[in-house]
């Protein structure tokens, strides 16, 4: 399902930012400057949704207006600006309550979207797998449910699949029932997807490979780094939230060990809890990881604030205590002076890389090798049918073969392997203690 409250391709939009005088997101930075930076991020989100940013308006207030967010006088100014810029859509860099959204739409005579709606539209555009589409639909339905009053026209455009009206019921209650029924059905389908993914994870655990997850602010270059480390061809884009569906590939480390690297959806400030919950199945890849690579765009002036948002979300996912390596990406965009300043203080303990140019990747792989918890290695005797190339490749990939001998139709090995692989070989009847 795709909500009617989305941004059409090349549609002109007016952006509205609102700051509060007594609070600044960044210590030492005045609220107006911080708000302008946040409005620039909203502009990038709008462009990622295919819109043309026609203009921007921002306001600093003592407190947010509970009815209209910005006050009646400012709404009149927004209405005039939207008309001057020929922008039929106004996007607020805040999440609006259903009442605020209705009041603003009546006052400015334009279609009004808030930050969550814009992000949902981008998600809907970029979801490719069945899992991603279901998660987007669930988030859209949960967003729409409390906003049904006065939205019969937009609901009628949702199309089939939600259900049909029951005779004698009030339309609003019928619409709510239909959406709740659809939410229930989508949740069941997502749970089925999660179970299938869990089966895949269980199968991967049979192969004793540690997992490493890439996390970071949206557009930090995670997918480019993923491709550089794995030689994969995951979609990369300068647009925000280009990656929604998790991808997993194997990576060889300098020690000869292999790990499973996963690419995940990017984080962003003020991401609603409901949106995080909707993408729980995707984020489980990060929750399963033995090591987290926190990727930052070191060239972005706001990278410190972005890093703080990522750390906040990691805490919400119970990953705050997980072993973590900070990766400062896009080093190729730094000036010589900036790069030298970072190098002089050891990059604050981070690893400086350019995924685009491939610089610093060797050092990153070495640090991953060192950071992963070591597993005891044991000596085993292995007996394999000559046709069992899969197990033989596993022993070579994870361990060290000390001797080998062909006896009839079987291959006898003596090897040092991780204890998890030794247990797996023992369970299968192919190995015994050396």
Task: Please give the number of β-strands.
Answer: 14
**How is the quaternary structure best described?**
single chain
Task: Summarize model confidence as the mean pLDDT.
Answer: 81
Broad shape: elongated
Going by helix content, strand content and strand pairing, the class is: alpha/beta
Question: Which sheet architecture does the biggest sheet show?
Answer: 6 strands, mixed
* Major β-sheet strand ordering: 6-7-5-8-9-10
Return the CATH architecture of the largest domain. Answer: 3-Layer(aba) Sandwich
**Helical content band:** 40-55%
Task: Provide the low-confidence segments as ranges.
Answer: 23-29, 152-169
Q: What count of structural domains?
A: 4
Q: Which fold name fills CATH's third level, the topology of the largest domain?
A: Rossmann fold
The CATH superfamily label of the largest domain reads P-loop containing nucleotide triphosphate hydrolases
N-C termini distance: 58 Å
Which class of the largest domain in CATH terms? Answer: Alpha Beta
Q: Proportion of β residues?
A: 15-25%
Order of helices and strands: EHEHEHEHHHHEHEEHHEHEHEHEHEEHE
List the helices and strands and how they pair.
Layout (H helix, E strand, L loop, with lengths): L11 E9 L10 H18 L3 E10 L10 H13 L4 E4 L5 H11 L2 E3 L1 H12 L3 H15 L7 H5 L14 H36 L3 E7 L5 H9 L16 E6 L5 E6 L9 H6 L1 H8 L3 E7 L5 H14 L7 E6 L6 H9 L6 E2 L8 H11 L5 E9 L3 H10 L1 E8 L2 E9 H9 L3 E3 L1
Parallel strand pairs: 1-2, 1-3, 3-4, 5-7, 5-8, 8-9, 9-10
Antiparallel strand pairs: 6-7, 11-13, 11-14, 12-13
Helix pairs in contact: 1-4, 4-5, 5-7
